[in-house]
Design goal:
By secondary structure, this protein is α+β, with helices and mostly antiparallel strands. The chain is built from seven helices and 13 strands.
């Protein structure tokens, strides 16, 4: 779930690196941008592949993912979820049926098979390595993945924690702003670490980001600015979530106010502990 902010041309997916290809799901919308990015991870010349976030349960989309792997001579052997929201996870069981792959997630409710995912895990596949990063905030079960595979450097798969366009909704009570800020800082520090050579963000919605540190720092600045705006709204006499939302998001399309109200609730919860 996202709050879009402007457009810089349509994102259509496709091959991004030698190992990572986005199959764009056909679920565009105000909260999903051009659709969910389903990531097929396949080291060239190998016989196995992983899928991150199968997206909605749409037969044509899932079949396209399976067919792309087959065209490359690969079998999908695992499905990983960044979090449990339906626009990322709904198709997981159907994709598992098509491929025989298990589904791995932090939340046991979304797993198929014995293996889950927790912070610090490493998923290895034929020269491809994914480090699992716990990045709660958007939701309590949100994960990101550090992909180490290509000679050109590493990439961060961020689900809804960092998007290709716009900002992410923090959804209380499961999502917490304090957690989200810490997750952004963790990703920023990782992206800035010279030894990791992170050159790309592969988000759950929207286009690939080619300047990871700048993008994540922009997210942190945006959150701090919104907190200042919420403080100002409270100081001006706003007392309810609806009143604060009307002040802070006065220049935003009202169709987005219900999502904005969720983030306002999270901001008020955060400020109440400060």
């Amino acid at each position: 779930m996202t709050t879009p902010a402007g457009s810089a041309g349509a994102w259509t997916g496709g091959a991004v690196t030698a190992s990572a290809t986005c199959v764009l799901a056909p679920n565009p919308g105000i909260m999903t941008l051009e659709g969910t990015n389903t990531w097929l991870l396949h080291p060239p010349g190998t016989s196995r592949a992983l899928v991150v976030d199968p997206g909605p349960r749409t037969e044509s989309h899932l079949r396209a993912v399976v067919d792309l792997a087959a065209q490359r001579g690969a079998q999908i052997t695992a499905v990983l979820l960044t979090h449990g929201h339906a626009d990322h996870s709904e198709g997981a069981a159907a994709l598992a049926d098509l491929t025989g792959a298990g589904v791995r997630a932090l939340d046991p409710a979304y797993r198929l098979g014995d293996e889950g995912l927790v912070d610090g895990d490493v998923v290895a596949l034929d020269g491809l390595e994914l480090q699992v990063l716990g990045t709660p905030g958007h939701t309590g079960d949100s994960l990101s993945f550090l992909l180490r595979a290509d000679a050109t450097g590493a990439a961060l798969l961020t689900g809804d924690t960092v998007l290709g366009r716009g900002t992410t909704v923090v959804i209380p009570p499961d999502g917490r702003l304090e957690d989200y800020l810490a997750s952004l800082q963790r990703l920023r520090d990782l992206a800035a670490a010279p030894q990791e050579a992170v050159g790309l963000v592969l988000p759950g919605h929207g286009p690939v980001l080619t300047e990871p540190v700048a993008a994540i720092e922009g997210y942190l600045r945006h959150r701090r600015a919104r907190l200042d705006e919420v403080r100002a709204a409270l100081a001006s006499g706003a007392t309810t979530v609806a009143e604060v939302t009307a002040v802070v998001y006065a220049d935003v399309d009202r169709a987005l106010w219900p999502a904005a109200a969720l983030s306002v609730r999270a901001q008020l919860d955060y400020l109440a502990t400060r």
